[in-house]
Amino acid sequence: MNESGLIVARNIVKRYGRKRVLNGVEMCVPQGQVMALLGPNGAGKSTLLRIISGLAKPDRGEILLGGVSTRKAGHEIRRYIGLVAHAPLLYDNLSAWDNLHFFARLYDIQQPAARVEAVLRAVDLWTRRHDPVRTYSRGMTQRLAIGRAILHDPPVLLLDEPDTGLDPSSAETLAQLIRMLSSGRRAILLTTHNLERAIAWADSISLLADGKIIWSTATEGLTSEKLRQAMTELEV
Q1: Tens digit of each residue's pLDDT (9 = 90 or more) over 121-135
Q2: CA–CA distances in Å: residue 94 to residues 18, 56, 82, 84, 133
Q3: I want to staple 62 with a disulfide (CB 3.0 to 4.6 A). Which of 10, 74, 94, 227 is the partner?
Q4: Global pTM?
């Protein structure tokens, strides 16, 4: 496996009781690339993202971020990670502006007002910055969650099914945001159940089944029909 990536998983094993959810996962996401992680429900995709983010520990194996082991780096490594999970981790009664200012203080961001403005403009929420989050659509809430995740400008971005529940217009806005964020020094790992979006959004696709990455390919030249055929043959 090429280990020059910004995100590297080495032989990750994770059990819950007697159930082995991850069974030797090997993976590499290079800098400037987006990888889509596909697999059936219960395959361990969210578990793997939680391990990479430091919210869960593997029973065996190692995660390297920029060549640094998360096990040895401790909690400080989380400053290099942005995570968008199933829960948006936002305060509904606060505005987008107040939400991001709160998180900016947690990250000790210098000149927080300028950074919050830049992020809100990047996620296309500047005009709604003073409205309570509870008044936002699902797509707007998801964009703000991504804004929270990139507020401290992390090189590693993890998106766990960011397109769930989005209408086509919101999904396209999210696609444009992901393309913008993937340029330069950042590596993005995302999960989705939508094969067409996986192909359109990512540079590569990996299939997780039976606790392992069983197949990986670049998305260039890949069609949804070819991907479905591969998944059928692999019984994913």
Answers
A1: 999 999 999 999 999
A2: 42, 29, 21, 19, 6
A3: 10
A4: 0.93
